[in-house]
User: Which sequence fits this backbone?
């Protein structure tokens, strides 16, 4: 069997260029290597914590599913599915709860950050903390361990969660004998943090994002709003700025070289922004067209997911049978 690469993204907002260059692009590249089997899923149960309700779930799930396909996920090569449609995930989660110490969950970054914020505000330590947040790493361990995952490509912020999945797998194997594959994280060190329009990390929490598939006019408007310094049109400009960083994401090597020279000679910000819009739009246009197609033919996306889910459940069923035998319930 080929080693499994597995990763998930939560449907918690409209996908932005930070998500694309920080996660989706590499995942698609990885899936082209036929030495591995890739499993990519939509972590909808993980999103429950951050969403206001049903409408947001439906909207962001649809946008994320269409985004993966528009960005080039090939369902013939990648097993593509929704976490919620693989019920063995929550079944395994319960079992794993029993080999996971509370102390380990107390150390999880997201929970610790909430506790610290509460302490600083003089509130009860667990104010606003629900069990979904507290047990988040155990559900993530289930996602990973259910599919005999060897490698988990994630951003640096998720490293601790994969380490916890590894600890949980080892604890299970120690108690019940070797049953679960012990996973490792694959951290993409190369991927710089993509900055938002205001120069801070691009994130939907800051409202500074460039949606990956907004229409041309909206894209132009956002690019025109990128913060720049007050140098005069003819003055040489530093390439150490968000505008040039974006140019490097979207431009070809030759285009970037050319722009570097124009910066050194003195290009007006207005012209630089227009040029950036052109390269960004050229880059995004073919993917945007595919995205719009899938948004309008969403039944095709559901059919793709359902096919993936059927295969995913077959693997999950096998793991759960092994787990049930190991713990002695069958
Ligand atoms: P957000 O910060 O907008 O809430 P998520 O936490 O949902 O985004 O991130 C989904 C994926 O996109 C993760 O793998 C994360 O590492 C990546 N990602 C998000 N924002 C950025 C960014 N500004 N630069 C690089 N990668 C990012
Ligand atoms: N927790 C991840 C995030 O916030 C998403 C996720 C859920 C995940 N389950 C996973 C990532 C399993 C990798 C493997 O980005």
Assistant:
């Amino acid at each position: 069997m080929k080693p499994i690469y597995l990763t998930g993204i939560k449907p918690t907002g409209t996908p932005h260029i930070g998500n694309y260059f920080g996660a989706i692009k590499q995942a698609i590249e990885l899936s082209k290597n036929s030495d591995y089997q890739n499993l990519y899923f939509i972590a909808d149960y993980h999103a429950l914590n951050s969403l206001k309700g049903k409408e947001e779930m439906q909207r962001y799930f649809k946008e994320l599913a269409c985004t993966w396909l528009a960005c080039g996920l090939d369902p013939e090569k990648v097993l593509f599915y929704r976490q919620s449609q693989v019920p063995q995930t929550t079944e395994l989660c319960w079992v794993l709860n029993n080999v996971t110490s509370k102390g380990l969950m107390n150390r999880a970054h997201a929970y610790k950050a909430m506790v610290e914020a509460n302490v600083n505000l003089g509130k009860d330590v667990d104010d606003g903390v629900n069990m979904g947040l507290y047990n988040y790493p155990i559900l993530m361990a289930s996602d990973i361990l259910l599919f005999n995952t060897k490698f988990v490509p994630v951003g640096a912020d998720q490293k601790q969660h994969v380490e916890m999945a590894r600890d949980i797998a080892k604890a299970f194997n120690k108690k019940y004998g070797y049953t679960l594959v012990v996973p490792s994280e694959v951290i993409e060190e190369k991927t710089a943090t993509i900055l938002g329009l205001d120069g801070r990390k691009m994130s939907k929490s800051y409202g500074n994002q460039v949606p990956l598939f907004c229409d041309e006019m909206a894209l132009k408007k956002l690019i025109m709003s990128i913060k720049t310094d007050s140098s005069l049109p003819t003055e040489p400009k530093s390439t150490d700025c968000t505008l040039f960083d974006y140019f490097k994401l979207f431009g070809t090597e030759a285009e970037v070289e050319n722009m570097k020279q124009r910066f050194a000679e003195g290009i007006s910000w207005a012209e630089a922004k227009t040029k950036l819009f052109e390269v960004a739009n050229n880059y995004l246009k073919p993917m945007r067209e595919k995205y719009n197609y899938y948004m309008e033919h969403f039944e095709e996306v559901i059919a793709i997911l359902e096919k993936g889910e059927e295969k995913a459940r077959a693997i999950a069923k096998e793991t759960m049978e092994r787990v049930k035998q190991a713990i002695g319930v069958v």
Remarks:
- The CA atoms of residues 119 and 125 lie 6 Å apart.
- The longest strand covers residues 4-9.
- Residues 9-10, 12-13, 18-19, 22-23, 155, 157, 191, 193-194, 201-205 surround adenosine-5'-diphosphate (ligand 1) (CB under 6 Å).
- The beta strands are 4-9, 37-42, 78-82, 151-154, 184-187.
